[in-house]
Amino acid sequence: ILTVVLTIGILFLYSFCGDKLPIEGGFSGIVENSSGKGVSDALITLYNTQNGSKQSDKSGKDGRFSFPNIIIGEYDLQIQAACYHDTTQKINIASGKTDRLTIPLRSIKAKLKVNKNENEKIIINCKKNEVCPPLEIEADGCLTWRTINKTSWLKFDFNKKEDENHSGVLKQGDATKHTLTPILNKIALRSGIFSTAFVVTSNGGGEWVELFIDFSDENMPLLDVSSTYLNRKSGESIPLTITNKGQGTLNSRITEKPAWVTINNRRDKPLDIQSLGSGNRTSLEIKIDNMSMANFGHIKIESNGGIALIWIIIGQITPDIIDNYPLPVSGIDEDFVKIEGGRFKIGAFCCDMNDCPYKTEDKDDDKSECAYYTKAPMRSRDREIKTFSISKYEVSLQEFKTFVEAANYKVEGSQWDRGLLNHPVINISWNDANAYCDWLSKKTGKKYRLPTEAEWEYAAREGGKEVLFGNGKDKAKIEEMNFQADSVDATIQNLSVKSNPRNSTVAIDDLDANSLGLYNMSGNVWEWCNRDDLTTNHVTMPRRGGAFTSPPYDCRTTRRQSRNKAGNETKGTGFRIVRVE
Question: Can you give the pTM of this predicted structure?
Answer without folding.
Answer: 0.62
